[in-house]
Structure prediction request, 327 residues.
Amino acid sequence: KVAIVGGGPSGLTLASILKAVRIPFTVFELDASASARGQGGMLDIHKSSGQLALAKAGLLDEFKKRMRVDATDLYVRDQTGEIRWYHTEKENPDPERPEIDRGDLRNLLLSALDEGDVQWGKKLVRAEKEGVAQEGCFSLYFANGSSATGFNILVGADGTWSRVRPLRSNVPPSYVGMTVAATRITNLDDRLPELAKFVGNGTCMSVEGKSLVVAQKSGDGSVNVYSFISVPEDWRETSGIDWSNQRRGLTEFVERYYSGWGQEAKSLIIECDEGDLAIRPLYRYPPGHRWEKTSAGVTLLGDAAHVITPFTGEGVNLAMHDAYDLA
Prediction:
């Protein structure tokens, strides 16, 4: 009896593979439903890792129907907006790293499951192992007061701040020295056509030193923008920027950290839809760290096991390959 905590790419990939080989499981996911919140931008799913897992789940053909070859366009620009490098796989009918919207990937993985395989609205508070036997049972306790018990295999796929991880390690993730301001602009083509042209159909990266602005165009015409800066971990609270007025706060943010940049990169940040701003410090586990606790029947996938900074899709592909290896 397998419990999978977390309905992100790693947890749902494992679930879809277990479904294909008829191993019973239950996924516990904190989101209230599959559509409770937006899933963010795009993910490039690599042939040598993520696509292997989809093939094992019997989902590769359907993935190829949903993948966005046009979104493999990648522009690398300097701070002025000048193109320094361009790459695309859109002429390749079977690309190495095709893109898919995060929401489409989740829906694809859920399509392999039956109703009831995922229990929604289950935010894990703690996981406990009952008894001392090698084949002990695990109990899960959730924020809504409910619980589930009787599992002999527990898989933590619940992200950076995993509540399953303490069964294997007490070492917390460490701050990498960078924070990202995540913003979003809907309907970019109609609202800001010149900015849409600047971004292109896929990913546009503007780089200067340790500062980076990444824009990704989703299939629905929205653009997710990620602005990376090197600041202390508590920067949001100590920056002195008043975030109560989003546009004013973003304007001050741009003036402080991107003052010498081209107007397009600045506009990608400032033109964010109201309410779509998130400030996220970035974390990782210490390089070379190994779990110091032995606990039979417990393992971790994806960010719960080895969170890394988000870049070139390696995190999600490693997470999906974790599921491939485990299954």
About this structure: The mean pLDDT is 94.
